[in-house]
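User: Hi! I'm a student and our assignment asks us to look at how structure tokens line up with a sequence. Could you show me two examples?

Assistant: Happy to help. In each example below, the sequence comes first and the structure tokens follow. Example one:
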Amino acid sequence: MTITSPPGQEVSPIAAPKAKNQGGGFLRYLITRFLLIIPTVFILITVVFFLMRVTGDPITAAMGGRLTPDQLAARIHEAGYDRPILIQYFEYLGQIFTGDLGRTLSDNRAVTEVLTTYGAATLELAINAVIVALLVGIPLGLVAAKFRDRYPDAILRILAILGYATPVFFAGLILKLVFGVWLGWLPISGRADWETELTLTGLQSPSGIYWLDALRSGNMQAFGNVFQHALLPALALGLLTGGVFLRLVRTNAIGTLGREYVEAGRSRGVSEFRLTTKHAYRPALIPIITVMGLQIAMLLGGAVLTETTFEWSGLGFKLAEYLTARDFVAVQGIVVLLAIIVAVTNFIVDVVAALIDPRVRY
């Protein structure tokens, strides 16, 4: 039986049932991707737990040499680190399910308190870096595609490779030296001046994201101060991902500009600017959305070096401090949180990619 279709278009008997099952296909894809989060997070938690035990128990790692052998043995027994490793592992899994990640050894704080206190700063840095990456990668990728195999394209590709290959801490030091020390245009450390921090942290129900709190309160002076402090860290971290976005947009836009419908528009006199910005723009976003989850993981990894370089009080900065203090309980909690964030982000990115491009679902 042949399904009727408009002139010039034929619909195969198999195409119609697929169209009916698109909703079911997306639901299956959604459930499958969500269920994959569980084993992913479980494996990451397991790997982190046993890696943290390679050098011994956390008490000995953090306080060995500062306590007498008797005091050390008492602390180890009190914390339960003298029990079999598998018992400790299953107890730790039970604590995670109840939201208890333990207490830090160096400053005796609840790990969940550390995560909530400093997590907003890392989230703010990641958002700023993503904004920079998108503002740099998408427009310059379209420019490179428009001037394919010409000087602008060659220069932009070299800059993209340099941006991706340059270590984030080195880029941060160069930015601090040029814009902070030599030119004196921007501050080189911290999230804001201390007066601004006192103002924003004193707000009712602050989010911890300074520029958002400044906008909510209508304090544009504080927003300007926060923006100045955030610019260099965002550039250092955002250019790393911006180079990846530039190359992805360029490659996909070149493929789109060679399609038949673009050639037809060109033959009708449509301007190259319109062809690039309208016809090549949306398809060029699909690969960016697809790899966004991987880039979020890269941003979180780069946040450790960026926050340390700019003394940005986030999870990366605290993670470096706890590593120096060999506080493996705190390190374990922070790494577990980052792993969960990466897994959930990848799920969200996959869902958005499936909504934009239905081929992803099958």
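Example two works the same way, sequence first and then tokens:
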Amino acid sequence: MNEILQIERTISGSVVDNANVIFDQTVYSTGNISYNPTTGVITLNEPGQYIFDWWVATQSSLSQTGIVFSLSSSQGDLLEGNSPIKPGEVYGLGVIDVISAPVTVSLINSTDQTIYYSSATPLTASLLVHNIVEETGLAFGSLRGSSIETPGTTLELVPFNVVGPLSGNITVSVSGNELVVGEDGIYQITISINAEATTDPDPDQPYLNAILTVNGTPLFGDTTTFFKISNRDSSTFVAQAALTAGDEVGASISTDFPILGYSNRSLTIVQLSN
């Protein structure tokens, strides 16, 4: 049985140094993973490998060294995500291997100062945890990037420069910018992109167009997977699709506003079934 927990934070506010991020909404929950919305603590109640994929939208901090959040577990795991840019989005991705359950996990502010969540976005944080059951042959993989890119008016491939955890049949394409599935199955694909704020925001609110692709063409063969990322904003898009062994999954992006670019982004795939 797959075990999945998806939680979100829908309010602004702040989180002090070394305190837990509190997610106030449970979007999806199945299996033996529990969450306490008062303390922000996740409990993994069974042994196994758990992949965590999270982001936090931030607005400001007095820190002199940027923004740092860490996924911390009761068995000693500490998986960091950081950004040198205070207003934006901080990403994290990692695997926690639970040998002896239960194990508690929380996302904490590891910066040396209070962090203020974004007040300009409807969601300020999101976290997805999925137990990978080895016997089923399920798999996961991820890519991340942090360079500042400025796309043109024609769709172009989103570049990545960091390979995250890979498991099972997931590999990376020759270009390094797509994830390749090794067997037929149903997969969940997630793309997160953080738009770079322009110096003087356009009153017409410039935006980026992004789309998930399979083998260079739009997912599902049409434009239903296009989503817009507004200036000074961050967006996450999730889709589930049947993929065939050898398919290369990536993302493409364009904009009609040449002043608008993007920076932090991540692409993840989790196999849901064979």
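Here is something you could point out in your write-up. The chain has a mean pLDDT of 86.
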